Amino acid sequence: MDGFDAGDVLVKWSAASSSIVTSSTITPYGSGRSVELSSSADIYRPITPSAQVTVGLAYQPVVSASRITVYFMADGGTILHANVMRNNSSGLLEIRRGGTILATGTTVLSAGTWYYIEMQATVADSGGTIKVRLNGASTNEIDFTGDTKNGGTSTLIDAIRIDNGSSNNRIDNMYALNSIGTNNVTFLGAVQVHTLTPNGNGSSSQFTGSDGNQVDNYQLVDELPYSTADYVGSSTSGQRDTYLLDNLPNGYHQIFGIQSNVMSLKNTAGTRAIKFALRSNGSVYYGAPVSLGTSAQTYSDMYENSPVTSLPWTSSEISNLEGGMEVV
To answer: pLDDT exceeding 90 applies to what percent of the chain?
Structure first.
């Protein structure tokens, strides 16, 4: 998932050019940030290879000439298979395989309006599918079955590419699902991604801040969009920092999952790694270790269910959650 609130799209995604991907304060719900792609911009992200992939995102064409394409890719992200495109002359959504139009929607996507688009694809020479839904509907705007394979050898989708064809487009509140497992494997509806930032000290403050101490470390990692001007760090295996987090907005919440995001790097030639740490109900739960590079990158870890109950998260659990990391 990505709410794009941290302004870190260029360190979380691969992009064609940093000058054509910007962070915007124009969003579907009037808070946070979105990503604005200008002409010829694209962002790309590999995913776990899967026979079926479902993608949802909030989308706003800035002007009537805006065109955007979401590609489902395979063979190590080298082959562009079936894709969903907003036609910049008609404003309608189209499904294409390469340059061949396979099916067209009936709803005009008007400039300046936010829409929530969900797309689900499988890749095959025959019997491949691609379905498109709008604004949380339970029925399909487009439902195509046929040839969705545009060459290559693999039918496992292993990357997503969002390509801005012409004029500016904005995207926000994105999710991507594979078909592995038993939950969160199909359309979720029009979701919101809420970014919860540190707002207090947690139970562990063992990293040393860029201010030279271990006092109020949360104040060094709480900026949105992100800042590299202040930070926390440690070279001692087993040291941990966790932070209290903002609460979700008031109201009913059906929580499909949470994601820890840590922007991190190493400043040594040796191997360095961290693991994500969540503290819930008095216990600390860890994610898998991730090896760090020498330039800043956002690393993410997903938790579909509460580690305490193995059931979907509740709002009260989120309200009492601490998030952070530990040196490996």
So the answer is: 91
Q: Please enumerate in sequence order all residues whose Cβ is within 8 A of that of 210, keeping only pairs 6 or more positions apart, or say none.
A: 220, 229, 230, 231, 232, 233
Q: Is 136 left (phi over 0), alpha (psi -120 to 50) or beta?
A: left
Residue 309: predicted pLDDT: 96
Nearest to 151 by CA among 192, 98, 112, 218: 98
φ, ψ for residue 235, nearest 5 deg: -115, 10
pLDDT in tens, 48-67: 999 999 999 999 999 999 99
In the chain, helix, strand, coil percent, each to 5?
5, 45, 50
Q: Is 173 left (phi over 0), alpha (psi -120 to 50) or beta?
A: left
Which has the closest alpha carbon to 276: 213, 221, 323? 323
Instruction: Provide the token pair at 69.
Output: 């394409």
**Angstrom distance (rounded) from CA 272 to CA 140:** 47
Query: What is the average pLDDT across 138-142?
Result: 98
The label of the residue with tokens 């719900």 reads: 29
User: Confidence band (pLDDT; 50, 70, 90) for 166?
Assistant: confident
* Contact status, residue 74 vs residue 154, Cβ threshold 8 Å: yes
Tens digit of each residue's pLDDT (9 = 90 or more) over 7-17: 999 999 998 88
Query: What letter represents residue 167's amino acid?
Result: S
Q: Which two tokens stand for residue 262?
A: 């840590």
Per DSSP bridges, beta strands 240-245 and 100-104 are unpaired
**pLDDT reading at 120 higher than 90:** yes
Q: Which two tokens stand for residue 14?
A: 């691969």
The closest alpha carbon to 97, from 72, 64, 120, 115, belongs to 72
- Residue 55 to residue 160: CA distance in whole angstroms: 9
Q: Is 217 helix (H, G, I), strand (E, B) or coil?
A: helix
Question: Would you call the peptide bond into 225 cis, given omega within 30 degrees of 0 as the criterion?
Answer: yes
Tell me: the pLDDT tens digits for 64-97? 999 999 999 999 999 999 999 999 999 999 999 9
Joined tokens for residue 224: 């949105």
Which phi and psi angles does 274 have, rounded to 5°? Answer: -130, 165
